[in-house]
Specification:
Radius of gyration: 19 Å
Number of strands: 13
Strand content: 15-25%
Largest sheet: 7 strands, parallel
Strand order of the largest sheet: 3-2-1-4-5-7-11
Number of helices: 13
Helix content: 40-55%
Order of helices and strands: EHEHEHEHEEHEEHHEEHEEHHHEHH
Structural class: alpha/beta
Shape: globular
């Protein structure tokens, strides 16, 4: 059945893939983007292109009224830069305040959406070498865990209006030619690839096609609510991941970049690379979701091999 969907963060890696799949299904998509003119070229055939400024949520009620679902992906970039005080504030506000404004607008409309699907991350759990995390696990205590908690709490307010809420706790997303994987394979292509940090840290990952399918599953299936771990069921160590990349593109994977190097360049943000988690997609498995890529070797071959 055709749905009327609002999609924020539509020009990001996940947003672009999700937009295309929604369009293939025949859904009517309204995109909230910072640059509507540019978005029209990247994402043709949306119903409307609305300028995204969560500091000025003008006329959001009019746009939201009558829509069946909102998928909220927008948020400032977390990786690839040092977390200064200002950057931390941007990361927090771009997620929490934007979600708060969306929920406030939803509460004011007469014909409210049936579901709000809001992005989140497995950073919710904090880092651990030994614990295995499911959706029922408690949250961590570091900066990213705090961001995720507040983000999900902001989204959960929509339940006061009788609306189903889903938070997609995403692991490391692997896409083709962009995103984290594109950056990580460059050293291998230059014959200087290898494990980052100790190599013992765990990677809970997800292929972009599975991630998009999970969003669609949560959009359509009312059995999903609350947090949902969007990771493949087979986590690996950084050392295993490095070996698999080398095998996929036929490059050596023996050089190691020590943890202290990342700390020098990225400070606290180096934790994104040097620490990890073992996360299980318990709700997806319990509800019979069939992963297209549950093996990292197969995922990497699909994304990296011509």
């Amino acid at each position: 059945m055709q749905k009327k969907v609002i999609l924020t963060g539509a020009t990001g890696l996940v947003g672009k893939y999700l937009f295309n799949e929604l369009k293939i299904r025949g859904d009517e998509i309204t995109v909230f983007v910072r640059n509507p003119a540019a978005a029209k070229k990247i994402l043709p055939d949306a119903v409307a292109y609305i300028e995204w400024d969560y500091l000025k949520p003008i006329n959001w009620e009019k746009i939201i009224d009558g829509k069946g679902a909102i998928i909220h992906l927008a948020g400032a970039a977390i990786g690839g830069r040092r977390w200064t005080k200002n950057i931390k504030a941007e990361i927090i506000e771009s997620r929490i305040r934007s979600t708060q404004e969306l929920v406030t607008a939803i509460g004011k409309v007469e014909n409210r959406p049936e579901v709000l699907i809001c992005a989140s991350a497995i950073g919710y759990y904090g880092a651990s070498d030994s614990n295995i995390f499911t959706e029922e696990s408690p949250g961590g205590t570091d900066f990213l865990a705090d961001v995720c908690k507040k983000w999900e709490e902001a989204a959960a307010r929509v339940e006061n209006f009788g609306i189903r809420r889903v938070n997609i706790r995403t692991g490391l997303v692997f896409g083709k030619n962009e995103g984290a994987l594109a950056k990580m394979i460059l050293p291998y292509q230059l014959f200087i690839g290898g494990p980052l940090g100790s190599g013992k840290q765990w990677i809970s990952w997800i292929h972009i096609k599975d991630l998009v399918n999970i969003y669609l599953k949560c959009l359509d299936d009312e059995n999903f609510s609350g947090p949902v771990n969007a990771v493949a069921p087979n986590f690996v160590t950084m050392k295993e991941f490095s070996r698999m990349i080398g095998e996929a593109i036929h490059r050596p994977a023996y050089l190691n970049i020590p943890e202290f190097v990342f700390k020098i360049f990225f400070g606290e943000a180096s934790k994104l690379i040097t620490t990890g988690q073992k996360v299980i997609p318990q709700k997806l498995l319990q509800n019979g979701y069939q992963f297209k890529y549950n093996n990292l070797n197969d995922a990497l071959k699909n994304l990296l091999c011509k």
